[in-house]
Amino acid sequence: MPLFGRSVKRLPPLPLTGKSDAAVAEQKATNIVWHAGTVTREERERLNGHHGCIVWLTGLSGSGKSTIAVALEKALWERGVRGYILDGDNIRHGLNKNLGFSPADRTENIRRIGEVAKLFTDAGLVAVTAFISPYRADRDQVRALMKPGDFIEVLVDCPLDVCEQRDVKGLYQKARAGQIPEFTGISAPYEAPLSPELTLRTATQSPEQSVAQVLGYLATRGIIPAR
Asked: For residues 196 and 96, is the Cβ–Cβ distance under 8 A?
C-alpha cells in the first residue's frame, strides 16, 4: 500500500541498518517469577462495559496522529469507554526521556510503549498510541505481544508534501536545513504498513471523519458498544 499520492515526489530508499540489532530486548533480570493476580481481564472488561485493545496510529510527522488521538479519546469518553492516549512526544518527557532517534533508540522506544499498551489492554482499556513508529518490524513486534485482534494498526496516510505544508512544529524546515538528523521522511525511512486494519487519508478527510471511521471499526468488531 503506497504512503504517498501519485503526484508526490517519492523518497529515495534509505539504509535501515541498525534497527534489527535492538529488535529484541535483552533479559538481564534473573531469579524473577510472574506473580498472577486474581482479577481477570474478562472481569475488568465486564466492569468497564467494553473490551480492551490498542489503536496504534502510525504515520509521518504532521500526518494528524496526535490530533486524531486526542479527538478519539474524547469521543470514546463521551460513549462511556475508558481510553488513554500514549503520545510520542509526551512519552519522551518521562518514560523514554533517555532515548534519542537513532534506529536502535527508535526500536527501544516502540518496544517500551508496546509493553505499556499491553498492560493498558489487560486492564480492559482502549490504549490509543500516536507514534511515527517508522519501522515495520517494530510494529510487528508489538502485534506479536498481543492476543489476536487486540492490535489495531491504523495508517494515518498523508503525503509528505502535505505534512511539510502543515509543519506545525517547524520540524520539516529544520530537517531540510540539516538541523535535525535522522528525521523520518527526510533523512530517515518510514515503512508504511502492508496490511493495516484501517487507513485514514488525512489529506482529504477531517479529523472528525477519521475519528468516526475508527469508532465505526471498533463498534463493528464489538470492542466498544454500538450507538
From this structure: no
Looking at the annotation, which residues are catalytic? 133
Beta bridge partners of residue 184, listed in sequence order: 188
* Lowest-pLDDT range of 86-100, 151-165, 194-208: 86-100
Domain boundary assignment for the chain: 48-220
| CB atoms inside a 10 Å sphere around CB 92 | 15
pLDDT per residue over 128-137, tens digit each?
999 999 999 9
- Where residue 198 falls (left for φ over 0; alpha for ψ -120 to 50; beta otherwise) is beta
User: Which has more pLDDT, 80 or 37?
Assistant: 80
Q: What is the pLDDT of residue 27?
A: 74
The gap from C-alpha 120 to its chain's centroid, in whole angstroms, comes to 14
CATH code given to domain 48-220: 3.40.50.300
